[in-house]
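@channel sequence for tomorrow's demo:
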Amino acid sequence: MSISETRTGARNAAGSGARTDVRSGVRTSVRSEAGSGLRSGAPAQVGAGSGAGAGSGAGEDASGGLGPIRAARELHLKRGEFELATQLGHIRTEAGTGGGRRRVSRWEIERLRTAEGFPDALRERVRTVGTAEGAALMSVSPGRFTRLARAGFVAPVTFYLNRYRTVVWLYLADELRACATRDPRLRLGRLPRGLCAGVDESDDRRPRNWRGRRIGHLLHEREDPWERTAVVGCVLDAAHLAELVRDPYERAYLNRLAPPLFRPYPESEAARSAVGRLLLADHPDEIAWHRASLETFLAQARRARPAPRAEEPTARAEGVGPPLGGPLGGLLTRLRVRRERGQGPVGAAPPHERG
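structure tokens (generated this afternoon):
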């Protein structure tokens, strides 16, 4: 095919609603932009889960569900705003096909787009502020605002690390305005003695308040009893988890199902250390609360179904096994299991073949 013929074919295809790949001469249909929110010239998604866009959460599946990137674009939200809106329940999501990432239905997108004040009203519901702007919203000094936050009267919704790897807490602007209106004593005059009773100045409640909110968000998204157990257990350290969940296969299953509390997880060692300190319960009252919750959720999960064992083919395919780490730990475990079953050592011939 000559260059002139190729160009002529491309012009004809454009006029007839089709797109021609000049390099291959293959014609592909182009979906109309009306109501789809696609940028001009963006290729249409073909089928469910096809192409790289589907894998990255950008496409639309066969049921009309949209991945987070595509849904955020159609709702005029930044990625962080979209994630926060889903956590707070402002955007309803559904489980992805085959247990993949949660998606947003086309019906939900249209509901939000036709709501009054879209998109500014939706953006305002997820607008976060730091200490300085939060203090201005509550009409208090930044120092007073920090005291209120440390004492637990206002709870952060997320955080980030600045360039000095210092934790910067963020608060919902709507919540701060409501808090100032609901209880004027927090911003006028001296803090009431009754409100501050028992609050240690060195005790910072912001991390545990954030963890509590985050766990609540994750529990709201999950229905499977083992996944819910993994959520409440992910803030307990390995020692507490091993004490409450003595079965190593159950622990391995919970570890595999444990969701990330914070992302993107930093790459540098110093940043990981700073974030890691915020991901585990560290106060006796908080630890006791999560231990009690884990026992309750674990009992419910066990009644629903047992955790997969390493002997089962599906469990081996998914890499489930006791969290002993390394080939030596696996060998010792197999030896122990065989000894408990009255079998010979690993690699030994069956009894009927000996002699």
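heads up for whoever presents: The two ends are 78 Å apart (CA to CA).
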